[in-house]
Amino acid sequence: MSQHPDTISVNGRSYNWPQKPLVVVCIDGSEPAYTQQAIAAGKMPFTAKMLQSGADLRGKCVIPSFTNPNNLSIVTGVPPVVHGISGNYYLDRDRGEEVLMNDPALLTADTIFKAFQDQGARIAIVTAKDKLRRLLGYGLDYNQGTAVCFSSEKADQTSKGEHGIDHADRLLNRPIPSVYSADLSEYIFAAGVELLSSMKPDLMYLSTTDYVQHKHAPGTAEANAFYAMMDSYFAKLHNLGADLAMTADHGMNAKHLPGGAPDAIYLGDELDEKFGQGQTRVICPITDPYVVHHGALGSFVTVYVVDADKQGDVMDFIASLDGIDEVLNNAEGCKKFDLPTERMGDIIVVSDKNKVIGTHEKDHDLSGLKEPLRSHGGTSEQTVPMMFSRPVKGLNPNHPLRNFDIFHVALNHTI
Asked: With respect to CATH, is domain 264-375 assigned 3.30.1360.110?
């Protein structure tokens, strides 16, 4: 029998060794109403029963409420100020270039997975989109044969040296799904079931895509069907002997006008008209390679100001626009939201619940938006579910839960 420590420490937090396989699921874009309404409609019978004997809690995600900063917070157990991933996209001030935050070199903290593998644990990670795969697998040693990390998007392009598994698509007798489909998420669950049976990992992380949530509100037939699918896989994973913990990277809200057009503030256009072209630069951290979902329109942006003496005037002007919720300078915003100052602009802007913010209208391709826009990014999408298959005890009532506490609660506070 392999020897391992009773606890593992990483990023200033300690985690008990799992007594049985622990599967943590990040349901992308899952505000609590999705699960609540699916359960009420009888579409999630396993989850309903699980929560009766387990725990159905709520937590807050990190801001900006986007995919990359929250997934990395979940798997490191700490906020972006520690791990460095402040959005899906940022401006490299030194190079003056806009950069996708999918390079592990941008990470400034180890993952929980690396810390556990270093002590002999077996790790399995399956994510829907490949943009996250290298970040989630940061630091894992695939040569040991104790770690697997791949995306369903590119499961047919894996190798042992880079992913811990050759031809991951051979786990399943099904084609690789379209990146713009609910099937992309189902693929990760089916792969998770196979890996749990064959590899018997100590820790498994499954991270879905929010394709469905961007298109369909809680309680709709399409949303309920998606959650029914997940429920069936939760049951399979549990029946294979795993403990389950589920959370979300962010919620989702309708952000469109009555006719269906996005309710957008094109801040770059507004600032150009007021202060002149080239005097400011707006960065939308929601931007990623998959903008069909949202057209790169979210509820959080950063602004860079060429003339520092005009920053106060720029902030006052932005605050005067209809639909703006918060305007903070770099120091204020990074302190409030636990963000790395060097990867944020001079100004942080958050919009109201039903508004999104863009750069210049001409720069946003909305041709892929077939349904009225639903998006995220602000504080109005911050409440997320935290669900556990086992009862929870001993939580500090003075410490409000965050989604990046999910491993902490599952490993240290379930009975």
From this structure: yes
